[in-house]
Specification:
The protein is of the alpha+beta class and 608 residues long. Helix content is 43%, strand content 17%. Strand 3 and strand 4 form a beta hairpin.
Length: 608
Amino acid sequence: MVAYGTDRNASMSKPRKNVKQVKATVEQLRELCRERDIAIKSVIAARDGDYDKVAPGMLPEDFDGHALVSNLVDTAARDISEVMAPLPSVQCNSLRQNSEAAKKAAQIRSRIGQSYFNNSRLQDQMYGGTDRYASFGYMVYVVEPDFDDKMPVIRVDDCQSAYYLVDTRGRTLCYATTATAKLSELRYLYPEYAAQFNTMLPNIYSTEQQDKDCDLISYYDENQISIICEDMELLHIENPISRCPVRVVQRPYLTPGHARGQFDDVIWVQVARAMVASYTMNALEQSVNAPVVLPNDITEMVIGPLEAVQTDNPQGVGRVPLNIPQGVFPESQMLAMEQMKGSRYPEGRSGNIDASIITGQGVQALMGTFDTQIQTFQTLNSSALEDIVSMCFEMDEALWRNVEKTVRGDDEGSPYEITYVPSKDIKGDHTSTISYGAIAGLDPNRGLVFLLQAQSAGLISKETARRYLPVDLNAVAENQSIGIETMRDSLTIAIAQLAQAIPGMAAQGQDPREIVMQFADILKEIQRGSSIEEAATKVLAPKEDQQAAQDPLAALLGGGGAPGAPAEGQSTQGPSGASALLASLTGLTPGGQANMQSTVMRKQPVPA
């Protein structure tokens, strides 16, 4: 229910309600939601296949209320809820983007907000919550304190019998749920109220009275949280935050009133399909078991395999033809199509797609309505989760302001552990940004295609595409890993290309054994578990005598002998006393291949 013209500050100044006032408020809300409660019960009965509760007497009694058609309402609701269930990411931003300290503080708050989701196991609860959103038209988040873990927890409430009042901005003013419980269970859960429970039982030893059903009311508003049984208040705590710790996500509605579920109008089509299928099966049974017509000359007939019948009129032997109307089968298909249209559930989700897999245009047209409702929910749910994270920040800071806590979690595929103090790390900043990313409303396969096309067209960077992938991974760590892998591949190629110089060295009379031994040593290091860069660094490191050698340019200019140069007095003449000069040039070709060129010049003095 929506309250128009509500002054929130005025409502916060009101004192807390007593038991009588709470029960009166719940009764008023229940009266306003009477039609909604009837619709919810009909949807639950249709999904359970109990069509007699939806339309008593519509199905033949021979089938005992069991339908002979698939339950499209239940199938569509489960499929839609599974697509809606994945949670978005929590991001806390800082106004001072140029400050590293502010960025680090924002990252800590982001991980604190994500820890609320993880500690509450919110992802597991989302499947039931989104199922209720599609079936009932709304889902409810409740923030409650966990005094054992000293953290706020988020609960997706079972809102089948929930009554609430919200303002025009979607903020919850009050929220209540009703349920029934056995008196024996209440005595066990609330032993401190055993004396009050005994006053409700004239004979506390009576088993029948112990199993008495009691009405329970859980009530939340901006001032209090109460649990009431009959006329007793079993629990009362003051609301630790400045607002009602409840957020309702409602489907869009046309006129003010209760939210409508997605299947409120198609459950009658489901009943009609079940009725047509039951009558069709009944007609088939009667046709197969129709009476047998015999000529007058047959007085006895044995029915069975390989039995013979002797008659002068064989055309007169047979069953009475009971024809099934041909319009029954098209009508069943028409009802199924009408049910899909009414529930906005595309036929493509069932796998029955008559479209081109090359262009994908037909698939896109079939899935259009499905994508829009997913995107609508993600927009509404993002706004709701921003309020919920803000409530968690406020409650954490209000109840455990100076308590040091350590939380662990997973941030985009990378595990983390942080220690924080609410008064130091939250510091009154309860804002956050909840985002489903650039592929909101798209299924994972088409979301991946969209990112690849946008990245190849230069619209987004690789890092942005990596952040919005429909998988959990750490974009920063993954970027570093890709860079390391690229450098390793380059180093491996460089070492492999160096080996191509061995035949040329051998042909020119040089000794290639050193390179061969270095390759063997690199392979041994890799087999021992070293990485390629560790093996290359260890094996190809310069020798100590080479490090201590003179600069090659100085040696070339005559400043000293380089390693391997002829010693003083050593002959440098070739055969027949010729003076030899060896010039070598090594390098890489434009294609990256090793290249080595050598030139030998011999000079022989000419006699005078």
